[in-house]
């Protein structure tokens, strides 16, 4: 989805960051204790951490990447990570392949946005992440609150009237929510690129389909086992997976992530998978997952919407 004609070089940078052409001499060394800022600096770039307040009180952290602090950047781009992720995810391929670094070297002022509720965005002005009400949000609020706050802040800091946006997975969902509910934001975006966007989920496969079928049969209360607060936080879970599965057995190392994304094993580099597991998950709310499950139970395409009927189940 592109709202205006995007620069050719911008599209090339995004296209050339794809995985299959990885040079053999690139190695991965992203220690699990490294924060996004540590990774950026270790990869030879300058880093800034910015915090913006959303309209409903969440403090959202953004990481800014620049090769040269004194350089004038003519264009700004926002990268929004995928579900259960954080800004760290964009950086794991390293200096020569990670998309944020390629964009920075290509002349872009790069901003990595962190979703509310992940490891970098767990502060609220009126409550604590230890309380139930903190986690009362989904990708809907990420779209209607987080993105407008981030767009306004970045536009003011960079003095750019138009911004470029790249969203992966839930990052793409958030942008679709914003543009659907507030189409005037199309004027703010010069371009929008959605990578593996989560939008039409009715034909989704894997764990989300199993949960959707369970929900359709047993109702909203059947998802209570997912919890009401944080879903898969950034605690010892990933470390335990690495210790248990990543012991030289390529297939075993890939399995934990394959269970989550239902992808093909041929798409993963074993060493990179270790780094991904070491930095994942970044954290989100259980309600976010439940909202996707609900989306998977409804055909919201133009054809399917004509068949939708009211339901007594407590949606979202």
From TrEMBL:
Enumerate the spans annotated as AB hydrolase-1 domain.
Answer: 76-197
Listed A to Z, the keywords are: Glycoprotein, Hydrolase, Lipid degradation, Lipid metabolism, Signal
Domain of life from the UniProt record = Eukaryota
Q: Does the keyword Lipid metabolism apply?
A: yes
**InterPro entries named in the record:** AB_hydrolase_1, AB_hydrolase_fold
SUPFAM superfamilies per UniProt: alpha/beta-Hydrolases
Would you identify the family this protein belongs to, as annotated? Belongs to the AB hydrolase superfamily. Lipase family.
Q: What is this protein called?
A: AB hydrolase-1 domain-containing protein
Organism of derivation = Spodoptera exigua
């Amino acid at each position: 989805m592109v709202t205006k004609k995007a620069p050719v070089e911008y599209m090339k940078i995004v296209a050339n960051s794809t995985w299959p052409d990885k040079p053999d001499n690139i190695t991965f060394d992203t220690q699990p204790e490294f924060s996004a800022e540590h990774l950026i600096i270790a990869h030879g770039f300058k880093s800034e951490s910015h915090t913006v307040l959303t309209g409903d009180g969440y403090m959202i952290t953004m990481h800014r990447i620049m090769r040269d602090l004194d350089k004038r950047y003519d264009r700004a781009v926002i990268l929004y990570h995928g579900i259960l992720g954080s800004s760290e995810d964009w950086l794991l391929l390293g200096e020569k392949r990670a998309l944020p670094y390629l964009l920075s070297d290509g002349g872009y002022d790069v901003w990595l946005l962190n979703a509310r509720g992940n490891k970098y965005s767990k502060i609220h002005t009126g409550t604590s992440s230890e309380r139930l009400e903190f986690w009362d949000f989904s990708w809907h609020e990420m779209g209607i609150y987080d993105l407008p706050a981030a767009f306004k802040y970045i536009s003011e800091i960079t003095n750019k009237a138009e911004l470029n946006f790249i969203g992966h997975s839930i990052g793409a969902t958030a942008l679709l929510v914003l543009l659907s509910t507030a189409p005037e934001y199309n004027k703010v975006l010069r371009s929008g690129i959605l990578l593996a966007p989560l939008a039409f989920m009715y034909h989704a496969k894997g764990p989300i389909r199993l949960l959707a079928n369970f929900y359709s049969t047993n109702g909203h209360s059947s998802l209570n086992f997912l919890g009401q607060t944080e879903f898969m936080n950034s605690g010892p879970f990933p470390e335990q997976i690495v210790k248990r599965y990543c012991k030289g057995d390529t297939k075993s190392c890939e399995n934990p992530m394959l269970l989550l994304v239902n992808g093909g094993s041929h798409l993963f580099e074993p060493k990179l998978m270790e780094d991904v597991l070491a930095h994942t998950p970044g954290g989100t709310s259980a309600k976010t997952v439940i909202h996707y499950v609900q989306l998977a139970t409804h055909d919201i395409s133009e054809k399917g919407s004509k068949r939708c009927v009211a339901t007594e189940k407590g949606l979202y």
